[in-house]
Design a protein that fits this description.
472 residues, mainly alpha, Amino acid/polyamine transporter I, 0% strand, cell membrane, AA/rel_permease1, APC_superfamily, transport, transmembrane transporter activity
Length: 472
């Protein structure tokens, strides 16, 4: 950033940070835990989001060059683990985009007044394939994010989220605690997880996924006046506001939806229940579903090209074969984009073997979060190691004015939280049948080992000839 560039205001950084996590998709997952969601959100915010954001702020201000996590890990742990980091940030998208795209079919059903088709796993599979490949092909010719711009986020994320919170408050003021909902029969013990029902614990992983990507806003830490003071304020305020908004939405949805009937992939479900109760015309649900659908498609477009632009740099540096370095006339890494679309298509076949749409949605969300957690584990280890191997690097934002105690504390909390999250993720959710529990564990372990193993295999067998000689 040049000296004359305009600095971000504190309010501006708070707005940017919140923009990364503003979504209605995760509200049903949060709401399905009833009163326990309060405990889960506090844990997710304090033990996961805040430590990772604060570590990332120090690392991004000390090493501001483009690349983010893979640059930090490369400096600390070497080029191999830097490559693994960039690889995992790419491949987690394979699972994450299947999860996001699965909501397209559900939303489309409400747009055309055929909500029942959203429960058909084969229809959801077909829509994932059609929508993702359609967006991929469009992005090979046009930058669809530029076409949609911020308008897609406003229409598809912010307006629906605010509408859901307002409807939820209105529903609660009219009805109080619904005796048929997830909040019925409050007891203090319901605020804590039921350890006699381990199948409920993996939902914590889905809630933690709300904050996945928290490190992204750290790239702006150098762009704010007095980052040592203002960046932690921005992060803490952003996380607190998002916790409050998500809890209002989550608690009111848990109140409105009958216990045991939450569809995790169906964000329109609570809108329908609340609008019927409040006497709002049904066309509202068609409109809100269409708006959220636009937001989902815009998000898919952003992910089609975003990670691929990082991967093409990794390829050009010689970490991937020349096949992955090919660009089309518009400069888009065409083979990387096509490979990711192909793998996403294969992952989406889970919907063909898991009839329960909600169960498939949660399982894929958990896989995405596990891969993200490995990246966060590498970041935390790197943050500690760099304090000792590169202590003299200027850190405009630093955890602790002197010594390494605070860094050890924050990194330690982060390491423990991601290990706990991975451990909890391997517990089969309650939605997985007894005869499928072993298969669930094998799938999660295999998906993780394969994704990490492929990166290590590629790095070990890379050739000097892979490196481009004309990198700009």
């Amino acid at each position: 950033m040049s000296q004359g560039s305009k600095k971000l205001s504190l309010a501006g950084l708070i707005g940017i940070t919140m923009a990364f996590f503003g979504t209605v998709r995760s509200v049903p997952t949060l709401a399905s835990t009833g009163w326990t969601q309060i405990f889960y959100m506090v844990i997710a915010a304090c033990a996961f989001a805040l430590p990772i954001a604060l570590m990332s702020a120090e690392l991004s201000t000390a090493w501001p060059e483009e690349g983010g996590p893979q640059v930090w890990v490369k400096h600390a742990l070497g080029e191999k683990w830097g490559f693994v980091t960039s690889w995992l940030l790419w491949v987690q998208m394979f699972f994450g985009m299947v999860m996001v795209a699965s909501t397209v079919g559900v939303l489309f059903g409400y747009v055309i007044n055929r909500p029942e088709i959203g429960n058909n796993n084969l229809f959801i599979l077909a829509v994932i394939l059609i929508s993702y490949w359609g967006i991929t092909l469009l992005n090979l010719k046009f930058d669809m994010v530029k076409v949609a711009g911020n308008l897609g986020s406003i229409i598809g994320v912010y307006i629906p989220f605010v509408a859901l919170v307002c409807l939820g408050i209105a529903y609660f003021l009219k009805n109080g605690i619904n005796p048929q909902g997830y909040l019925a029969g409050f007891e203090p013990k319901k605020l804590l997880p039921d350890l006699t029902n381990l199948g409920s614990l993996p939902t914590l992983t889905g809630i933690i996924f709300i904050f996945a990507g928290v490190e992204i806003s750290s790239v702006h830490a150098n762009n704010i006046d007095n980052p040592k003071k203002n960046y932690p304020i921005a992060v803490i305020v952003s996380v607190l506001v998002l916790v409050v908004f998500n809890l209002i939405a989550g608690l009111t949805v848990a109140d409105a939806v009958p216990a045991g009937e939450m569809n995790l992939a169906n964000i329109t479900q609570p809108f329908v229940i609340m609008t019927e109760d409040l006497g709002i015309p049904p066309i509202f649900n068609n409109i809100i579903s269409f708006m959220i659908l636009i937001g989902v498609l815009v998000q898919l477009s952003a992910w089609v090209l975003g990670p691929s632009k990082s991967m093409i740099k990794v390829a050009d540096e010689g970490n991937l074969p020349p096949f992955f370095q090919k660009r089309n006339a518009n400069g888009i890494p065409i083979n990387i984009v096509l490979v990711q679309a192909t793998v996403i298509s294969l992952v989406s076949l889970l919907y063909a073997v898991i009839p329960d749409v909600s169960a498939a949605f949660l399982i894929i969300t958990i896989t995405t979060t596990i891969l993200y957690c490995i990246v966060y584990l590498l970041i935390a280890i790197s943050a500690i190691k760099l304090r000792y191997t590169m202590p003299n690097i200027e850190r405009p934002f630093r955890l602790g004015s002197k010594g390494n105690g605070l860094m050890w504390l924050v990194s330690g909390i982060s390491i423990l939280s991601v290990i706990l999250t991975i451990g909890v993720s391997l517990i089969p959710p309650a939605s997985v049948g007894e005869n499928q529990q072993t298969g669930y564990i094998i799938y999660q372990v295999a998906a993780t080992v394969i994704m990490v193993g492929v990166a290590l295999f590629i790095y070990r067998h890379k050739q000097p000839s892979w490196k481009k000689t004309d990198i700009k």
